[in-house]
Amino acid sequence: MAFCTTRERIQLRNEGVPQMEIDRLCGGTTQQRVPSMPPQQQQMPRPRFATLCMTNAGPCPMAVAMPVGSACACYTPWGAVPGIAQ
Question: Which ranges of the chain have pLDDT less than 70?
């Protein structure tokens, strides 16, 4: 079954082809030939990075930045104190 663009249908009509014949030749409905576009990729928000680890014992600087909200630890002479990167 062939499909015709709007331009092709207009051209057939201008050449005097009856509407029923155009519908028969073109498959009944107008089809626009539109190049397929790749699906839009959703941009993920960029993660925010933290340089401080907040613990119950207080904050400490981190040697490497990590995403905000990540688990981290401050190291003290008495051991590691868990915290959250902020």
Answer: 1-2, 28-42, 44
CA 67/CA 60 separation, integer angstroms: 16
CA distances to 47, 59, 63, 65, 72 from 69, rounded to whole Å, are: 10, 14, 16, 12, 9
Q: Token pair for residue 70? A: 């990540």
Cβ neighbours, 10 Å, residue 34:
7
Hey, how many other C-beta atoms are within 10 angstroms of the C-beta on 17?
15
Q: Which residues pair with 81 in a beta bridge?
A: 74
Locus of tokens 């539109």: 34
Give the pLDDT of residue 41: 65
pLDDT recorded at residue 63: 87
